[in-house]
Specification:
alpha/beta; 11 helices; three-stranded antiparallel sheet; UPF0353/GerABKA_families
């Protein structure tokens, strides 16, 4: 893949004209520098000049190189991809509503719990997106927006990495989560807008009923795709730790309501999926994308892809400056 070098701030390169001035100034100072005179200089002459004398003029050159490389770094060299990316791209606006209730700590996805697996699969799902805007809503007893709709997938993945259970009031407020997600999509101009609900339980908290939220989605023409995570029934659930710090598991009944999730999906034109293992969750998310109509987020124009390459130049500048200071203070130190 051929890459072209470009500078984000090429005007900074005008500063390179100062480099010859620095070299001339160093040469002039060396010519005018005072020297010590000895009445018996012939004694020193017989000893030879030594190679340090030949290295001293190199110090100003090293300093000038450090300045030159630093200026190049400040101009921000960038690698430009030869292929031009069309901005008339197609994409979907997706808001993922992720359950953070304590039931997501269940260990039926051993060796990891449900939330850990959901985060891993979601991170992979986000990484595979190209032009889809993604937002993240988390919920337990209440619902909050963790990441608004964005194309910056790195930010969404970082936010996803930080979330955990037992931070929000416990419960499963599915209705509130859907209403919050719909609010993020309400003003979107994308033709394809969708909510993906990932939960492992039944609605037992919140101020808005799930079916009322489904009616809102129906009026906004936003399909809701529901994914039920977990096997249901009695599943291993952490009950603390033993004397050796190992997690103690006990089979606990965790209520689920697949009929509710099926009803929500059916009313809004979405689909219902059941994920009893990591692969099932991955396939569910992929099926969501396969069933969606793609829409244009941006119109017209083209753009090249850039990669910042100033880091090695900046490191080289610091290295040269440090080398010059070290030599001047030690091996090539002069008097006076």
């Amino acid at each position: 893949m051929p890459l072209d070098l470009a500078f984000h701030s090429p005007q900074v390169l005008w500063g390179l004209l100062l480099v010859p001035v620095l070299l001339f100034q160093a040469w002039r100072e060396r010519r005018q520098r005072a020297v010590l005179r000895f009445s018996g200089a012939h004694v020193f002459a017989r000893q030879g000049r030594g190679f340090r004398v030949y290295l001293l003029p190199a110090l100003p050159v090293v300093r000038a190189l450090a300045v030159a490389v630093a200026l190049i770094a400040l101009a921000r060299p960038q690698s430009r991809d030869a292929r031009v990316r069309d901005l008339s791209v197609e994409g979907i606006d997706i808001v993922v509503a992720l359950d953070l209730s304590t039931s997501m700590e269940a260990g039926d996805f051993r060796p990891q719990n449900r939330l850990h697996v959901a985060k891993e699969v979601l991170a992979e799902f986000i990484s595979n997106r190209v032009n889809d805007r993604i937002g993240l809503v988390v919920f337990a007893g209440a619902a909050y927006t963790q990441a608004p709709l964005t194309l910056d997938y790195g930010v969404v993945r970082e936010v996803l990495k930080q979330i955990r259970t037992r931070v929000l009031e416990d419960g499963t407020a599915i209705g509130d989560a859907l209403a919050t997600s719909l609010n993020r999509l309400r003003d979107s101009e994308a033709k394809s807008r969708v909510v993906v609900l990932i939960t492992d339980g039944d609605n037992n908290a919140g101020k808005i009923s799930p079916l009322d939220a489904a009616s809102m989605a129906q009026s906004l023409k936003i399909p809701i795709y529901t994914i039920l995570v977990g096997k249901g029934g009695k599943v291993p659930f952490p009950q603390g730790q033993d004397l050796f710090g190992n997690t103690v598991w006990r089979d606990t009944e965790i209520p689920i309501n697949p009929e509710l999730l099926q009803d929500i999906a059916s009313r809004t034109g979405g689909e219902y999926y059941r994920a009893t293992d990591p692969e099932g969750l991955k396939q569910g998310l992929q099926k969501v994308l396969d069933s969606l109509e793609r829409s244009k987020l941006m119109e017209g124009g083209a753009s090249a892809t850039y990669r910042e390459d100033f880091h090695p130049y900046l490191l080289a500048a610091f290295g040269l400056a440090a080398l010059e200071l070290l030599l001047r203070a030690t091996f090539l130190r002069v008097f006076p």
